[in-house]
Amino acid sequence: xxxxxxxxxxxxxxxxxxxxxxxxxxxxxxxxxxxxxxxxxxxxxxxxxxxxxxxxxxxxxxxxxxxxxxxxxxxxxxxxxxxxxxxxxxxxxxxxxxxxxxxxxxxxxxxxxxxxxxxxxxxxxxxxxxxxxxxxxxxxxxxxxxxxxxxxxxxxxxxxxxxxxxxxxxxxxxxxxxxxxxxxxxxxxxxxxxxxxxxxxxxxxxxxxxxxxxxxxxxxxxxxxxxxxxxxxxxxxxxxxxxxxxxxxxxxxxxxxxxxxxxxxxxxxxxxxxxxxxxxxxxxxxxxxxxxxxxxxxxxxxxxxxxxxxxxx
Length: 313
Prior knowledge:
The protein is α+β, with helices and mostly antiparallel strands. The chain has helices at about 1-15, 60-70, 105-125, 140-160, 165-170, 170-180, 215-225, 235-250, 255-280, 280-285, 290-300, 305-310; strands at about 20-25, 35-40, 45-50, 80-85, 90, 185-190, 195-200, 205, 215.
């Protein structure tokens, strides 16, 4: 049992007697397939215990990526104990306050954390992995194709109950994945959204980073700007882009950012539909309208409007 394995890890890490009182609180957020538990031993600070299987290839990357990002100076929870053989780790408990918890707060209250998050992306931009460092598969044309098929299967087919076959060979979708897959010059998080940014001491800390890979930085930027959980207004997104330019001293290329947003939102809609319908997690279905509205906005007056517009309508 994962909980028993994590309890054993805590007792070993703290050298606790078998009778020492230890409280374990499951953390339900997220859909990574891992077991994540807050563990508090009496008279000790709490830990976040992570037990993972190797059914998902990225889970095995958690510890090496954590070491790499820490060495690169990014804000992530500290790994305090790990046992690769038992596939467990104990990491620093940064609390429950994530960026999503500020959803209803004024932009001015959120801005320092957006700045901190953008600083992390900017640091990642200039960080290069060693040649022998294993990342997840590169974001290339086949991977973008997989994301699009995921969208067609779960969102168009399962959620909308429409036939997705006519779109599988759509030339506008093919052109999108070809443009985005032409280069993958930067390391990216791939799921850079509000639930994966914990807030502490005025800073944003990145979690769920085991999917690190090479891709387009604009994909991560679009993931935060067009985060359906936060459902940012156009005014707030404009302010965030100004902040991005201030942090990076550069402005994103608008057509490229729009392409990345389109691709990301299709992936998100596929994930929401899959989690909601196939994993019995209805909360994700509630996020679909915001993602649909964003996707309608970013494909407006593009070739994809003719392809996806009728489906979204």
